[in-house]
Design brief:
2 strands; single chain; about 80% helix; 8 helices; mainly alpha; elongated; about 0% strand; two-stranded antiparallel ribbon
Length: about 290
């Protein structure tokens, strides 16, 4: 190897000047990232094959969802450690650094770039597919709406349908329900009760009038006294309130469980990422030790 002597100074390697001026090799980092991603993909495909081979619906020996999920998580952690360790080792080895700190930086940068690249690929691919699907559906729906809106008047004109006739026919569907509950059909009674329910829920004077109207309808339809009808309406209201409270409590419990699971998953993900960073740094510093010895 060529050396130079400068005015009695200690001989040094010419390549040391280049390495001192260039402590971070992005080419080596890129090589490490490529190796890490490739190893992760290969081991991921291998893990998928192993998991599918364990599924046997005919014999009924398929592992449970909990055990399968834990096994998949552990396998993902192991593959991440192996992949990032290999990537960090390759980056430090190719860069030619001799300082452990420089090797550590190369390993951590490989970890960071791999993480960012993975997140980008996931968000861009999934987001692009979903966004494209929704844009397509929106375009089709908009075109269909425009077509129907433009064709409807023309179709009515060709069929000889007058706008006044349409309004008159619609009025038949919106005809008032008989005011006397005894004259209502069961269908009309149900519609009238449904019409009064929002006012009953709001309460106040309107709610009291709506409840009185419902009590009259129940009494007339079931041919019972008004007191008995009032008791049935009160029971229905109590059952409704109880069901609503139970639904609210169930929703709160589910939300609390979901929040706890999300928090637990976040902590585990952070630990897994830190383990990956440690694996990449360890692989890089191992390459430096190998070089020094």
């Amino acid at each position: 190897m060529a050396t130079r002597v400068a005015n009695g100074m200690t001989p040094f390697e010419e390549g040391a000047i280049a390495r001192a001026a260039r402590r971070v090799s992005w080419g080596a980092i890129f090589a490490g990232v490529v190796i890490a991603v490739a190893v992760q993909l290969v081991m991921g495909i291998l893990g998928t094959g192993i998991g599918l081979s364990m599924v046997d619906p005919v014999e009924g020996s398929t592992p449970g969802a909990t055990g399968f999920g834990i096994g998949a998580g552990l396998y993902w952690l192991i593959t991440t450690v192996v992949a990032l360790g290999a990537g960090g080792y390759a980056a430090a080895r190719v860069s030619g650094v001799t300082e452990r700190f420089d090797a550590l930086v190369h390993g951590l940068v490989v970890w960071g770039v791999t993480l960012i690249l993975t997140l980008y690929m996931l968000t861009s691919a999934v987001g692009g597919i979903i966004g494209g699907a929704f844009r397509t559906v929106g375009s089709v729906a908009g075109a269909a709406g425009s077509t129907v809106g433009a064709a409807a008047p023309r179709a009515a004109q060709l069929a000889g349908v007058d706008a006044g006739d349409v309004r008159q026919e619609a009025a038949k569907y919106l005809s008032d329900t008989p005011s006397d509950p005894a004259q209502m059909t069961p269908e009309q009674a149900q519609k009238e009760i449904a019409k009064q329910l929002p006012a009953m829920a709001r309460g106040g004077a309107d709610g009291a009038r709506a409840e009185s109207r419902v009590v009259d309808i129940v009494a007339a339809q079931r041919k019972i006294s008004r007191a008995d009808a009032q008791a049935q309406v009160n029971k229905a209201k109590a059952d409704f309130v109880q069901a609503k409270n139970e639904a609210v409590q169930s929703a709160k419990t589910a939300a609390d469980a979901a929040a706890g699971a999300a928090a637990k998953t976040s902590f585990l993900l952070v630990i897994a990422l830190l383990v990956g960073a440690g694996a990449s740094a360890f692989g890089a510093t191992s390459a430096t030790r190998r070089r020094l010895h």
